[in-house]
Amino acid sequence: QSALTQPASVSGSPGQSITISCTGTSSDVGGYNYVSWYQQHPGKAPKLMIYDVSNRPSGVSNRFSGSKSGNTASLTISGLQAEDEADYYCSSYTSSSTLNVFGTGTKVTVL
Amino acid sequence: EVQLVESGGGLVQPGRSLRLSCAASGFTFDDYAMHWVRQAPGKGLEWVSGISWNSGSIGYADSVKGRFTISRDNAKNSLYLQMNSLRAEDTALYYCAKDLVSEVIPSFDYWGQGTLVTVSS
Fold it and tell me: How far is CA A38 from the centre of its chain?
């Protein structure tokens, strides 16, 4: 099971919107609405930002939103803030014997 | 407050075994699936294994299948990972993570701080 494909880095200025893509196959991202997104600051544990493609857990800012089209899921961060600078990982349930696969990770830089 | 506290990591020689534990509190442990996720130094996240609320459904990453065994003790609110035949590539920070639901449909809403496993001679 190969990792889901994410861009290595994305950057934006404060206040701008950015979008991170997560490309898989019909066996994972395209086949199920079980895509999650995680934010990880250096030296910290990951934090769930989006689950089931587009749902936000309680306490997560509504500046974060998720969507999916075909085999590609996306995380959009609007009104970019300095605190959003972190690594972001997507994750999907998969029909393969490996039940879950993570993305390769994207480093978000706030200019 | 949900708390997940991992223990059992350390330095181990290739081919040896190690058992990780995760003590859970602050939620009804036997209502949720649980998972182990690892992160090699400077690398991305890798799901290792997951177990449903009643241990009826278990999954493993291909990279650890046949070597690692996940288990849970709902009476003790604890999750375990028995790691055998360890390899250098198993070196990582191992996180315990709680699922959103009772079955193994991985979405991890709470994470521990991790326990470091180093496999080296």
Answer: 6
Q: Identify the residue whose tokens are 């590539």.
A: B89
CB A72 within 8 A of CB A21: yes
DSSP B88: G
CB A106 within 8 A of CB A9: yes
pLDDT tens per residue, range B46-86? 999 999 999 999 999 999 999 999 999 999 999 999 999 99
**Between chains, do B62 and A47 touch, taking CB under 8 Å as contact?**
no
Q: What is the pLDDT of residues B16-33, one digit of tens each?
A: 999 999 999 999 999 999
| Tokens 């649980």 -> residue | B34
**With an 8 Å Cβ cutoff, are B47 and A57 in contact?**
no
First to last CA, chain A: 35
Both tokens assigned to A110: 């706030």
- Substitution target in A100, A101, A107 with the highest count of B β-carbons within 10 Å is A100
Note whether A38 contacts B45, CB cutoff 8 Å.
yes
Cβ pairs bridging A and B (under 8 Å): 69
Mean of the per-residue pLDDT values of chain A: 95
Taking an 8 Å cut-off on Cβ atoms, the answer to whether B106 and A57 are in contact is no
Tokens matching residue B112: 């521990």
* Nearest CA-CA partner of B94 in B34, B33, B26, B13: B34
Give the mutation candidate from B45, B99, B100 for the A interface (greatest A CB count, under 10 A): B45
